[in-house]
Amino acid sequence: SNISAWWNFGSLLGLCLMIQILTGLFLAMHYTSDTATAFSSVTHICRDVNYGWLIRYLHANGASMFFICLYM
User: Fold this and answer.
1) Between the CA of residue 21 and those of 14, 34, 60, 62, what are the distances in Å?
2) Is residue 10 predicted with pLDDT exceeding 90?
3) How far apart are CA 23 and CA 55, in angstroms?
4) C-alpha torsion angle, residues 60, 29, 53, 17 (rounded to 10)
5) Partner of 11 at 20 to 30 A CA spacing, among 2, 5, 51, 66?
6) What total number of domains does the chain contain?
7) For the segment 30-50, what is each residue's pLDDT rounded down to a tens digit?
8) Distance between CA atoms of 39 and 51, rounded to whole angstroms?
């Protein structure tokens, strides 16, 4: 048949893309790109924002999962 287990990776790609978009928008609301304050904004996200560490973790690992699903 035409449908196999490999078709699941297309759905996983869509899920990873949506996670990347949502977490990226959330992180962009709290991040400042100035060279003097960029690192402090990342530490602010991880320490002061509610579940900011989780959002950052999901965003970082979501990119890896996206490319793993893409290359499969």
Assistant:
1) 11, 22, 12, 10
2) no
3) 6
4) -30
5) 51
6) 1
7) 999 999 999 999 999 999 999
8) 18
